[in-house]
Design a protein that fits this description.
Keywords: Antibiotic resistance, ATP-binding, Cell membrane, Membrane, Nucleotide-binding, Translocase, Transport. The protein has nine helices and ten strands. It is of the alpha/beta class. It has one domain (2-232): 3-Layer(aba) Sandwich (Rossmann fold). The structure holds adenosine-5'-triphosphate (ATP) and magnesium ion. Residues 45-46, 160 line the site of magnesium ion.
């Protein structure tokens, strides 16, 4: 069992002085999965990510990442992860390509230019490769930031609120980048306050509330926690997001908002 899990967290506790933020957090993330940790402001999501990425020590409990213990094998953990924080950590003066080449050089990888070009292509930044990052939009920076964190192919990637502050179109672009990661076999743990982000992206969703994981499951499992949907006939009004995306032409590959606007099926008439 344990070897199939990229992240394993048991009984994690953390307080800041008298503030008990984590009160026994348990969850596991399968290899190659996208796991969303949901919670309100201050729920402790960043605290969990910091503990898993060895930036912070837990008060109690254990956590392993890629088979290594975050407390006793921190160096091994650091070698197998990347962390993308909420604010893009890219150099404004350099071009997108130069940023990537720089990181590949710092990691002593062979052929930094080729690594940069591959990532630019993967994250749809080839056309902007030679431009200074200062001229990039928020979504482009975020994509570049995620691309930079992938240099060296870490098997586990932490994304702390990857789309906070982005417009709907840029969010969809980042979602595509995250899906791309999982398709390459990378395990992704992301935190978000956006329910629709978790709904669109994650294989499993956990809700952190008052220091504990109160639910953890697939979207279908979470939906089954509520009574079955009532069948009602309503006129479907487009959401503001539908209007925005229709007007600005978001969701180029058509997989955003695919099936969430349909009214309940009309078969069921008991
Ligand atoms: N270094 C610190 N010292 C004291 N309190 C802290 C520290 N870091 C976080 N906290 C507090 O711990 C709680 C959890 O913070 P954390 O940043 O983990 O929440 P979060 O779920 O990431 O919130 P957000 O959605 O706003 O990013 C908050 O009440 C926060 O104020
Ligand atoms: Mg946070």
């Amino acid at each position: 069992m344990t070897t199939s899990e990229a992240i394993q967290v048991r009984g994690l506790e953390k307080s800041y002085k008298t503030l008990r933020v984590l009160r026994g957090v348990d969850f596991a993330v399968a290899r190659g999965g996208i796991f969303a940790l949901l919670g309100s402001n201050g729920a402790g999501k960043t605290t969990v990510v910091k503990i898993l990425s060895t930036l912070l020590k837990a008060d109690a409990g254990t956590a392993t990442v890629n088979g290594s213990d975050v407390a006793t094998q921190a160096a091994d953990v650091r070698e197998s992860i990347s962390l993308t924080g909420q604010f893009a950590a890219v150099d404004e003066i350099l071009s997108g390509r130069e940023n990537l080449v720089l990181v590949a050089r710092l990691r002593h990888l062979k052929d930094p230019g080729r690594i940069a070009d591959d990532l630019l292509e993967r994250f749809a930044l080839t056309d902007a490769a030679a431009r200074k990052v200062a001229t990039y939009s928020g979504g482009m920076r975020r994509r570049l930031d995620i691309a930079m964190s992938l240099i060296g192919n870490p098997p586990v990637v932490f994304l702390d609120e990857p789309t906070t502050g982005l417009d709907p179109q840029a969010r969809i672009e980042v979602w595509q980048a995250v899906r791309e990661l999982a398709e390459h076999g990378t395990t992704v743990l992301l935190t978000t306050q956006y329910l629709d982000e978790a709904e669109h992206l994650a294989d499993r969703i956990a809700i952190l509330h008052e220091g504990r994981i109160i639910v953890n499951g697939t979207l279908d499992e979470l939906k089954r926690l509520l009574p079955p949907a009532e069948v009602r006939y309503v006129e479907k009004q487009p959401t503001l997001e539908d209007v925005f995306l229709a007007l600005v032409g978001g969701g180029k590959d058509g997989d955003a908002g695919d099936d969430r606007t349909t009214a309940p099926a009309s078969e069921d008439r008991r």
